[in-house]
Every structure is written in structure tokens, then in C-alpha cells.
Amino acid sequence: MSACISITPSHIIQYLYCPRFTWFEYVLTLPQYEEKQHKVMRGRELHDRKLEENKGYLRKRIGVKDKQEDIYLTNGLLRGRVDEVLTLQDDTLAPLDYKFARYEGKLYDTYKTQLYCYAWLIEENYGGEVNRGYIVYTRSKNKLLEVPVARKDVEKVKAAADSIRTIIGGKTYPKATKYKKRCLSCTYRNVCTQ
Length: 194
Description:
5 strands
């Protein structure tokens, strides 16, 4: 097993979508060409701009005592840049993440998983409790959504990170997702054995 494997929330999201993403991208090193996707690039640009536009912003209505912006965190296995780390009135901590998206009544699992990853990082780096996170939908007039973070949610992303480490380090070929509809739009559908 490689000692220098560093995993991001995106890796965990991809693994949870289908474990074979990890195999193709990190064992066979087949790129996804994600940077060519317009929405991804636009989201990154907006993300950076929002961080600049909100320097003096404090979310009083959700009980924020303090915030830190654009914080890079790692725990030796997982790494990520959190848009805001909030300290709330009850002295718990919470990640806040901006999304270049409209809120259409559904909270996607990918967004929740990202917050669970940030909760893991925040707890390990700050030593405080995280029991919720926040998402800001920038294309819905900055709609703010609170997302509960339970212990089992954080344990799920930890287990996924361990599985990713096993796949990469042990070069083990994982089973594909059981949700075959996901294969239809998969980057690796032409090279994946089903």
C-alpha cells in the first residue's frame, strides 16, 4: 500500500457512485478530462469569486459567532478546501459550501457527502463537534440549506476512504456499482468489464 495516497471529497463521491472510478482513474491512471466540462469550470470560477465577494459576511440568522474562509485541511488521508468553517453559538463547528446551482427541492447525495468529508476534516483539525453543515445555492438567490451531519455519515466516508486506499494500494479490481443506469453516462463505460 502506498504511504502517500491523498484522497479528496471528489474521490469519495466518485467511489460511492461506482468503486471502479477509483480503479480506472488511480490504478490505471485513465483521466476523466473533467476540466473540459463547462459546468465544472464555471462552478470553479464562481466559487472563487464568491469567496472574494463575501469577505465581511457573517451569518447571524444561523447563529454564527465566527467564520474562517477558504480553509485547506488535511488529516493525512483526506484533504480538501472548505469554503467556510463556521463556529456557531452553541460552540459546535460547521462547514459551509457554495454551489453554482439552483435549489430545485432536492438535496443531492454528492453535496451531502462533501459536507460529511468536511465534517471529518474539521473535527480532526479543530477538535470540535460538527453536527450540521450548510450549502449556499448561488443560482437561487443564495438560498441557504442546513444539512444534518450524523456520526454514521462521517463513518461512511471514512469507510469509503479506507476502501479507496485498499483499491489503490492493493491494486484490487472492485465490483462495479449495482445501479446499472449509472453506467450509461460513465466516462469509463467503453473500457469497463460488466
